[in-house]
Amino acid sequence: MLQRQFARVQARDLETFTNQVVTLISTFRGSKGVVDLQPAIFRFTLATTTALLFGESIDTLSEAEQTEFAEHFDRATWVTAVRLPLAHLSSLYNTSSYRKSCRIVRRYADHFIDKAFQYGRDHSEEEATERYPFIFDLHTEYKDRSLVRDQLVNVLLAGRDTTACTMSWTIFHLVRHPEMLQRLREEINEVVGAETLITRAHTKRMTYLNAVLNESESF
Which of 33, 93, 74, 55 is nearest to 157 (CA)? Predict the structure, then answer.
């Protein structure tokens, strides 16, 4: 159902992630001793996933708003995971805090949809679709704002955690196998060279990187 939307998003340049990557690296710069990577990686994937889906990252929100969104998104995600095995009995586990978190997550999704539609009114349809491709493609497909919002949240749920876990697990194994980490560095240096921006054309040539990620996901 979402193949066309993902194809459009995947065609975008990786420069979308630049600010988030810089923020992630700065988090660990100067760190000493044992460092817990996962919280920072989860913040990173939440920022990048919202940037791709909403057309703007949650980084555009205030610090308080980012914290509120992240906390309620995490709570809603956790309870949803607990409810999933209950299937048709999931209504038995429907706490007030869960309903509150769902409302807040939907509110923020609506916030970005409003910004996209306002941009569409202020600019041409082509410009709006270029800047907010996922939102406008979904709206073209469903003609229903609530369905657009629900699909955005649905994909956000699926995309944030899986990417963060893959990154965390990959780093976990690489630091325990320095020879593989070195080989990966050599491949990246060979493919990218002196260029400062990694593109999708680069990553397609990084066969060892793809192998490392596939192997990490299989554990």
Answer: 74
- In terms of phi and psi (left: phi > 0; alpha: psi -120 to 50; beta: otherwise), the region of 193 is left
pLDDT tens across 103-123, in order? 999 999 999 999 999 999 999
> Does residue 46 contact residue 24 with C-beta atoms inside 8 Å?
no
Q: Report the SS3 class of residue 216.
A: helix
Residue 142: count other Cβ atoms within 10 Å of its Cβ.
14
Helix ranges restricted to H, 143-193: 145-174, 178-192
Question: In this structure, is residue 163 part of a structural domain?
Answer: no
142: which residues sit within 8 A by CB, 6+ positions away? Answer: 148, 151
Q: Considering its fold, how many domains does the chain have in total?
A: 1
CA torsion through residues 98, 100, 103, 108, sign: negative
Which residue in the block uniquely carries the two structure tokens 């509150």?
100
Question: Is the residue at 172 inside a domain?
Answer: no
Backbone phi, psi, residue 95, to 5°: -75, 160
Inter-axis angle of helices 37-54 and 145-174, nearest 10: 150
CA distance 106 to 99: 11
Domain membership of residue 117 (yes or no) is: yes
Expressed as residue numbers, the domain containing 141 is 3-16+56-157
Question: pLDDT tens for residues 118-152?
Answer: 999 999 988 998 889 889 988 988 899 999 999 99
Helix (H, G, I), strand (E, B) or coil at 175: coil
Query: Among all chains, which residue has been given the structure tokens 């493609």?
Result: 137
